[in-house]
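Subject: for your reference before the review

Hello V.,

The reviewers asked for a structural picture of the protein, and I figured it would be easier to keep everything in one thread rather than splitting it across files. Below is the amino acid sequence we used in the manuscript, unchanged from the supplementary table.
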Amino acid sequence: IKGMYLFKMNSDDVFLSLKGDVRGVLGYTAVELVGKDAKCIIDPSFIPPLVDAHTNPNSSPLHSEFPCLRKDGSRVWVESKATRLPNGIIFGVVSDITERKRAEQNLIDTIKEIPGVLILEDEVFEREPVKQRFKHISIMGDTESITGYTKAELMEVGLLTLLMDEEAVKAAEKQLSIIFRGEVPSFVEIAFKRKDGTKSARDSEHGKF
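And here is what came back from the structure prediction:
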């Protein structure tokens, strides 16, 4: 399949085999990468968090999106879905998502300037209580008019810690359960407390308030 390949690597992140459109995605042949550390193709700035995820014994299956460096030095965004076996061997599939990431960025660039729109990029912890479920990676948009907090303050506080009442917590919990099942959540109004103590609500879908 064009733009997709399968891989197998050991517990040291060394490629054992690759099959599929490796050259199309990365510019390398499978033979060139077998025996190499998988980190050699990853954008260096993204290596630390990926290493943390892959070395966590509880992080299976592994699902991540990150940029790789092709053989010619150009950048390609990929999505990796993998599973670690008890013996440490990791099997996975990688897909080229460069066009999707470009479209997402174009959408973000368009809507982040709209008053009353807040865009969150989050790391999600499925087993944590709902208010501790998200760690903000980035925040864009109209944070101060919506929440009363600056972007820096909201990064520290966390939007879901501001949920107004038990009804809001239950609404957020329902949306999160839909997301974790891999389904598209519906719009819902979730009330939260602004910095000045007043109540605010916005339509919410998959991290957009």
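For the response letter, the relevant points are probably these. The chain has seven helices and nine strands. Strands lie at 4-9, 15-20, 62-69, 75-84, 90-96, 118-124, 134-141, 188-193, 199-204.

Happy to draft the paragraph if you're swamped.

O.
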